[in-house]
Design brief:
two-stranded antiparallel sheet; mainly alpha; 8 helices; about 200 residues; 5 strands
Length: about 200
C-alpha cells in the first residue's frame, strides 16, 4: 500500500539524486529506502528511476510523478499548517549535522519519532566529520550535532555507548590479564591505528 513516506522518499531521491542521501533525509536506512522505491514501482507497474553507478535519476514518467507528488505533499503541508496554526503548534526548521554512519544507523528511529511528535518542524540533515560538526555548531550554522566526543561545555544528550576492545597477540602480557584491561595499562602500548576521519576520538 502506498503511503506518505513513499512520496516523501520519491521527492528526496529526485532532489538528492542518490538513494543513500535521500534515505537519511527521510529517516530510513539505505536498504529500506531501496526496497520502498522498488515496492512503489511494483505497485505502479512502471519504473520511476534509473540507477546508474553513482546516481539515481528519474525516468520521463518519474519526472511527471515527482511533480504530482510535490503538488500533493505541498497541499498536505498547507492543510497541516492550517490545523497547526489553529492549535498553536510550533513551526520551524531544525538543522542537524553528523557523520554518515549515524544517519544510517542511530538516527532513523529518532528522526521518525521526532517527526511524529513535531510534524511542523522540518529537519535538514548535513553530513560532516566530527571536527566539521563542532565548527558548524560554534558558528551557529546547525542547531544540533552528533559527534563521537563532544567538546567541553557542550550540552550533551548521549545516544549510545560503544565497547572498547583491545586486540592483542596471545603472548602479550595484557592478553593474559583477563577480560578487563585498564586504559592506563594501554597508554604506553604501540597501536596499529586507522582514524577513518575520527582522529580526535582515535
Amino acid at each position: 500500500m502506498m503511503n506518505l513516506m513513499h512520496w516523501r522518499l520519491v521527492l528526496a531521491v529526485a532532489d538528492a539524486g542518490n538513494i543513500t542521501h535521500a534515505a537519511a533525509q527521510v529517516g530510513m536506512t539505505q536498504s529500506g529506502a531501496s526496497q520502498a522505491i522498488a515496492q512503489l514501482e511494483d505497485m505502479l507497474g512502471a519504473p520511476l528511476f534509473t540507477r546508474e553507478r553513482r546516481q539515481t535519476v528519474p525516468t520521463a514518467l518519474g519526472l511527471r510523478v515527482v511533480d504530482e507528488a510535490r503538488a500533493m505533499l505541498g497541499a498536505l503541508e498547507r492543510i497541516q499548517a492550517l490545523t497547526q496554526a489553529a492549535r498553536g503548534a510550533a513551526r520551524g526548521t531544525l538543522r542537524l549535522a553528523s557523520f554518515p554512519m549515524v544517519f544510517s544507523t542511530i538516527l532513523p528511529p529518532v528522526l521518525r519519532r521526532f517527526r511524529q511528535l513535531h510534524p511542523a518542524i522540518d529537519v535538514v540533515s548535513l553530513e560532516a566529520s566530527d571536527d566539521e560538526v563542532e565548527t558548524l555548531l560554534a558558528a551557529g550554522t546547525v542547531d544540533v550535532g552528533v559527534v563521537l566526543n563532544a567538546a567541553p561545555g557542550r550540552h550533551v544528550c548521549p545516544l549510545g555507548e560503544d565497547e572498547w576492545m583491545a586486540v592483542l597477540p596471545a603472548a602479550h602480557p595484557l592478553a593474559r590479564a583477563g577480560n578487563a584491561i585498564d586504559f592506563a595499562d594501554l597508554a604506553a602500548q604501540p597501536f596499529v591505528l586507522a582514524t577513518g576521519g575520527c582522529s580526535v576520538h582515535a
